[in-house]
Amino acid sequence: MRRQQRMVSSEHSLHFSAVFTQLPLPPKKFYLSEEEVTEIIEEPGNSEAILKRHIQLFNIHVEELNEDGTIRYCEACMCIRPDRAHHCSECNTCVLRRDHHCAVMNSCIHQDNTKAYLLHLFYGSLYTSLAFISDFKFTYFDIPEDRGHFWFAGSFAYFTCMQLSTWLWIIYVCLIPRNLMLRDKWNRSCPYGNLGWRGNLRRIFGSNPFLWLIPTRGIYEYKED
Questions:
Q1: Spatial distance between the Cα atoms of 144 and 80, rounded to a whole number of angstroms
Q2: Taking a C-beta distance cutoff of 8 angstroms, is the pair 15, 118 a contact?
Q3: Which residues contact 203 (CB under 8 A, 6 or more apart)?
Q4: Element (H, E) at 161
Q5: pTM score
Q6: Per residue in 136-163, pLDDT tens?
Q7: What is the separation, in whole angstroms, between the first and last Cα of the chain?
């Protein structure tokens, strides 16, 4: 019982850490000035040249482009998107290394809360596994038969949550070393910001492997001075 209580407390802290971590926005130099935005609106055919001029002016490094080879520009945020950044319609902003918008967390999973989210899945799978085993024993061996079938609902709920969290955790463990996210194509590694499988793991979980299962911060790019 005490072990389950500790796991629940850990789950709550990881959940809040993933939810309330501030969204990492693109650095200021990626945002266009009002004059540049006006130029793009008035001369949409010349937008690519305007974006390239801005990139050269502020010495911005971007590798990820649109499928047609053009610069990734967000009209809603009026900024050039850094590599791996995407616009979230729910959060109404561009988010660095955005994976997806989690309905359970009611927040984007991004570069600064990916570790908390993954640990939430990991410890959640452990907790639901332990709860399922305990509830299964109670349901099938300890309660009288005349209690009805309602008691089986708890076992089924724990088993379902255990399967979801475990398989999602396994998917992420396979994707992160290849520098991939859920939104990427899984048949190849992502070349943008790829540090190799060791570097990709350290970027998410931190440089010290002994702290990978503890909710510490990772190491990321695009941090403003």
A1: 65
A2: no
A3: 195, 218, 219, 220
A4: helix 152-175
A5: 0.82
A6: 777 666 665 655 566 677 777 888 888 8
A7: 47
